[in-house]
Amino acid sequence: MKNILIIGSTGQIGSELVLKLRKTYGGGHVVAGYIVGAEPKGELLGSGPAEIADITNTQQLIDIVKKYNIDTIYNLAALLSAVAESKPQLAWHIGMNGLVNVLEIAREYKCAVFTPSSIGAFGPDAPKKHTPQDTIQRPQTMYGVTKVAGELLSDYYFRRYGVDTRSVRYPGLISNVTLPGGGTTDYAVDIFYSAVKTKKFTCPLPAGTFMDMMYMPDALDAAVDLMEADPARLKHRNSFNVTTMSFDPEILAAEIRKHISEFTMDYKIDEVRKAIADSWPDSLDDSCARTEWDWNPKYDLSTMTSDMLAILSKKHEQGLI
Ligand code: AKB
């Protein structure tokens, strides 16, 4: 049985990943690591242990690894792309100094490590469409710089020290549980909340801005399935392209209109987010993930949209959003 520590457990991915892993491995085997000010609540708090786990505090992490005999770390601590552009030094500190802490502890205590990368690990020089697994990576954002450096460092720890490091390059993640906060792809979540609550949305990115996206259940499967994959089949490790759909704001709005015919959208462009989005791929080629660990996502634009609107409408009726 695995003993797992999730660093950043109350964030967009963590808040759902903790519960999924607890269902699989048992509540007591999955520690929800959090920082002061982002404490776990509700089911997250009640279903298993929780500990303060600041990724920049080496001793704190070592104490948790020893106390719970941790053998697997999901390192989800990061600033998303738009926030990282406003606080680049902090983004480096958390993304890189934090990762070095995790990798060193993993080396010492023999833990496997999952660290998400992102479509942000590519820059304007990479092929825009069907961006290959292995291609030029020259991002121009601090977020992207930390993601590429993190990929390289994680591969280094695998080759040099045998640390079992694995990673996927997430696209924009769409979920109905926890809001993302500070990403370039956030509009693709916000639009659903606005559609349900007010039937209108002001979009911060222009029509024609294509980016990869993924519904959260597929994103959670990607993390868990990769960590469970047979290492003998992995030719890559850090990091795998994964995707399920690519759309621009107009395509998403049209899909929402199939359910809410009165839905309208106008535009007020956020230039920081636009510049970041313009430097990212339109769509990724995820064939290596499909070949090396049977990546096989379940949701497309149509099924994701139906599910998002059904769940958020119910929450809205209940006064929860
Ligand atoms: C962001 O927009 O910053 C993230 C990402 C694609 O990495 N959602």
Measured on Cα atoms, how large is the radius of gyration? Answer: 19 Å
Strand % is 5-15%
Tell me which CATH architecture of the largest domain applies here: 3-Layer(aba) Sandwich
CATH topology-level name of the largest domain: Rossmann fold
Structural class call reads alpha/beta
Number of strands: 14
Q: Average pLDDT, to the nearest integer?
A: 97
Oligomer: single chain
The proportion of residues forming helix, as a percent range, comes to 40-55%
Largest sheet: 6 strands, parallel
Segments where pLDDT lies below 50 for 5+ residues? none
Helical segment count: 12
Number of domains: 2
What is the chain-wise order of helices and strands? EHEHEHEHHEEHEEEHEEHEEHEHHH
CA-to-CA gap between the ends?
Answer: 37 Å
Shape: globular
Report what the structure shows.
There is one protein chain. The protein has 321 residues and is an alpha/beta fold. Helix content is 44%, strand content 15%. It contains twelve helices and 14 strands. The strands form four sheets. A six-stranded parallel beta sheet has the order 3-2-1-4-5-7, with helices on both faces. Strands 6-8-12 form a three-stranded parallel beta sheet. It is globular, with a radius of gyration of 19 Å. The protein binds 2-amino-3-ketobutyric acid.
